[in-house]
């Protein structure tokens, strides 16, 4: 299936989910993240903040657990720079003041900037992904540009409310593939201990 068709189909499927179903699936994803991805002191983890109206994976359980169980891990979140068509990255603390942008994404105001090359692991929002690590988002390319600026060894983990599709028919040369993806029922590739 092509990206445009997948985007449309997955947005419709996601809109059909109840708030409770998104919450249950998000908690399963959070549990699988902590079970399969050991964290170390000094790491920087980049986490997207969910667009609630779009029924995105709720990442707040991950953030709260990082704060409680891994205070030595720095949590960084994106801020959208629509004028430059890029993401900037900011340290999220308990004191951070969040303001919703035009798309309904909560973003920290006046938070410390963190450069992409400092990030060790990125949690990436997905509408869909395939068994080859190709992914479909909203189609603006923000994450492709961000991931291209990261170190080559950054770990790229997609979070998806749905299982993988067999194959995305039209990946392009600028697409940065996933290393892993977490769904409510498991981690792709399945070989992860």
From TrEMBL:
PANTHER family: 5-FORMYLTETRAHYDROFOLATE CYCLO-LIGASE, ATPASE INHIBITOR/5-FORMYLTETRAHYDROFOLATE CYCLO-LIGASE. ATP binds at residues 3-7, 135-143. Substrate binds at residues 49, 56. NCBIfam families: MTHFS_bact (TIGR02727). GO terms for biological process: folic acid-containing compound biosynthetic process; tetrahydrofolate interconversion. The lineage of its organism: Bacteria, Pseudomonadati, Bacteroidota, Cytophagia, Cytophagales. GO terms for molecular function: 5-formyltetrahydrofolate cyclo-ligase activity; ATP binding; metal ion binding. It comes from Pontibacter indicus. InterPro entries: FTHF_cligase, FTHF_cligase-like_sf, NagB/RpiA_transferase-like. This is 5-formyltetrahydrofolate cyclo-ligase. Keywords: ATP-binding, Ligase, Magnesium, Metal-binding, Nucleotide-binding. It is an enzyme of class 6 (ligase). It catalyses: (6S)-5-formyl-5,6,7,8-tetrahydrofolate + ATP = (6R)-5,10-methenyltetrahydrofolate + ADP + phosphate. SUPFAM superfamilies: NagB/RpiA/CoA transferase-like. Its EC number is 6.3.3.2. It holds the Pfam family 5-FTHF_cyc-lig.
